[in-house]
Each structure stands twice: as structure tokens, then as C-alpha cells.
From TrEMBL, chain A:
Family label: Belongs to the binding-protein-dependent transport system permease family.
Record lineage: Bacteria, Pseudomonadati, Pseudomonadota, Alphaproteobacteria, Acetobacterales
Primary location: membrane
This protein's name: ABC transporter permease
UniProt keywords, alphabetically: Membrane, Transmembrane, Transmembrane helix, Transport
SUPFAM superfamilies associated with the record: MetI-like
PROSITE patterns: ABC_TM1
Domain ABC transmembrane type-1: 15-194
A biological process term (GO) from this entry: transmembrane transport
Automatic annotation (TrEMBL), chain B:
SUPFAM superfamilies reported in the protein's UniProt record: MetI-like (SSF161098)
Signal peptide: none
PANTHER family referenced in this protein's UniProt entry, alphabetically: GLYCINE BETAINE/L-PROLINE TRANSPORT SYSTEM PERMEASE PROTEIN PROW, OSMOPROTECTANT IMPORT PERMEASE PROTEIN OSMW
One GO term of the biological process aspect: glycine betaine transport
Record key words, sorted: Membrane, Transmembrane, Transmembrane helix, Transport
Protein name, UniProt field: ABC transporter permease subunit
Membrane protein topology class: Multi-pass membrane protein
Cited Pfam families: BPD_transp_1
Amino acid sequence: MRWTARHLDTIGYALLDHVLLVLAAIAAAALLALPLGLLVAHRPLLRAAMLGGAGVLYSIPTLALFALLLPVLGLGFVPVVVGLASYALPVLLRALLAGLDSVPAPVREAADGMGLRPGQRLRQVELPLALPVLIGGLRVAAVTLISAATVGAYVNAGGLGTLILTGLDQDHTEKILVGAALVSLLALAADRGLRALERRLGDRAGLRAAP
Amino acid sequence: MSTLAALPGWVLDHHAAVLLALGEHVQLSLAALLAGGGAAVLLGLLGAGRPRLAEATITLAGVLRTLPSLAVLAALLPLLGVGFAPSFVALSILAVPPVLVGLVTGLRLADPAALDAAAGMGMTRTQRLFRVSLPLAAPLLLEGFRTASVQVVSGAALASFIGGGGLGDLVTAGVALLDLPRLLTGAIAIALLALLADLGLGLLARRVAP
């Protein structure tokens, strides 16, 4: 563990870079998913087409996606954020639509009956009720992106993948294992943390919905 | 755009290398899918009718599913060295969770009335499992194999980093040599293979659906 003790700052920065990559990509994807989701929510054909297209995007392997973006966007942080955001977008879009679907029709009608405008209804009624499902989507997106961001190191985005890849290059077992262990722990922590939040919000929504 | 136009010519000129990489990729993916998927089916069947064991295997799948592919591949290198062996083991591990979750969920969803009827007909537990529960669980099991196949094909692209060969070699060599056609050929082939696996197993799953 000598290397680790001497390079705590390198490891810390790699961890920070990794988290920043994932957060930036999720933020970008969320900004896109919200208007797209609202646009297609009540248009079945458009919705099916968009979810189908997003599904194809989601199944493109990480290395292939970053390699395809390389000639267009080059190396570094930005192309990897774009690639990661394209993985998060289908997940968030699906979660948003499922969340909006989960709002019972009578609740929506009651909101209309109270004279709420569509924007108010969305902000004050539908999105709060859809929140547990949205957090579920966020959890899947976070785990997927933490994993995919590891490969981003190959196109110089930084992050914990850098420890793994330089470790592989230098035949440096400790570096490989520290990188692999940290990125796995990060993924597990994100999964557990967001799952706990999802459950708590779900329980609260359940209590509220009770008569 | 000129690079894209030159791509078919490049592939023709280098068809031996491309076919070799494709062959390695398919071989590695299929081997891992069979081994990992097989192990998952075995675990899932063991858990049938044993709710606590089934719950434990689902928890295990949840943890395995969370592990990043590159981390699993890289972590096995110190143990198993470079090449096919660590890649095969890592990808087999990645194949387990989707298949296991698909099978366990499918078995749970099997209609209790159908199971009661089968018991009434005098079927033993094993007979009920194989003749009633399993056929009913087949569509979800195949959905699990579908997810697993995409993950394995995707993960096999990363095997190149630990000397496992496959289409990832075209990408890494393309980056190292600044050889754009090589890089794009590898990337497009990997993407097409993943989409093909997704589509093929998706169609199969739909056909078995009752």
C-alpha cells in the first residue's frame, strides 16, 4: 500500500474528476430530458419513436461510443460528458414518462378543477408525485454512468479509469486495484444512497395518497 | 466525411484482420454468455421454491450488476494474468445478474393457479418446476439473456485493455496509430454486434411469449 499512501492526492483528484464527469453528464441529460419528455408525453407516436431511438443509443457499447465521438469532438472532458449524457438521456426520459404516467388521472383532474394552469399542475402536482420514479431513474443513470465514465479515461477524460489504465500500462497492480475498488465502491454507494432516497420518497408519497 | 467514404475500401483491404477480431469477439462473448448465463440459470433453479435463497441470489446479483465492467476486467488481471482467461471470467461474471434476475422474477410471476392445478394432477415439485414454472418464466429469462448479451458484447470490447483480443483491438490500435479508418471500423462493428444481439434475442423473447 506504499503507492497509495504517497499518492492520496492523485487518487483524490481522480475520484473528484470521476464524480464531476458523472454529475455534469446527468445535469446535461436532465436538462434535455425534461422538455423532450413533456413534448412527447401526450403524443403516443412521437413517444414510441423517441423511446425506441433512445433505446438504441443506450445499447451502444461505451468504447464504441467514445471512439465514434473521437473524430468529431476530440479528446478530453467534453466529449466524454456528451457520450455519458447520451447514456443518461434514455434512462431519465423513460423515468420521467413512467413517473408522469404514475400520477392518477383523478388527481390530475382535481388539479384542473382547482384552476391550476398546466405549468402549475406540472410543478405542484405531477412532478412531486413522479419524484420517487424519477429518483429511481436517477439511480440507474448514476450507476450506468459511473461505470461508463471509467472507460472515458481512455479518451483522456480523467477520473478513476485513469488509475486503472495507467496501472495496466505500467503493470502496477496496486494502482489497478485501487482504481477498480474505488470505482466499484462509488457505484455501490450511489446505488445504495439513491435507493434509500427512492424508498423514503415512495413511502411519503404513499402516505400522502392515502385517504 | 472522406474518412467514412474510404471505410468500405479499408475494410476490404484489411478483411483478414477485421474477421479475426470479429471472430475473437464473438467467441469470447458466446463463451462468457454460456458460462455466466448457465451459472445464473443453475442458481435461479436452486432458488425456486426456496424464497430465502432466491432473495440472497437477487442481492448478490444487485451487487454484481453495480460493478463497472472495466473494474472487473482489470481486477482479475493480477489474479489470472492477461489474455482470454481473465476476460472470459470477468465477462462471465457480468452475464450473471441479468439472467438471474430475469429467471427469478419469471419464476415468481408464474401463475399460482397453474401450479396448484399441476400439483392436483400429481406432479412432483421438480416436475412442476420444469413443466410449468420454467416455460412460464421463459420470456423473462430470455429478456435477461438479451440484456446480458449486450453487456457482454460491450464488455468484450474492453477485453482489449487486458490482452483479450476482439474488436476492441481495432479501436485501441486505431487510437495508438492515429489510424481513423481502423478506429471507426472497430467502433462501428462493436456497436452493430451489440445491436444485433439486442435485436436477435429480443425477437426470440417475443416469440416465446405466451
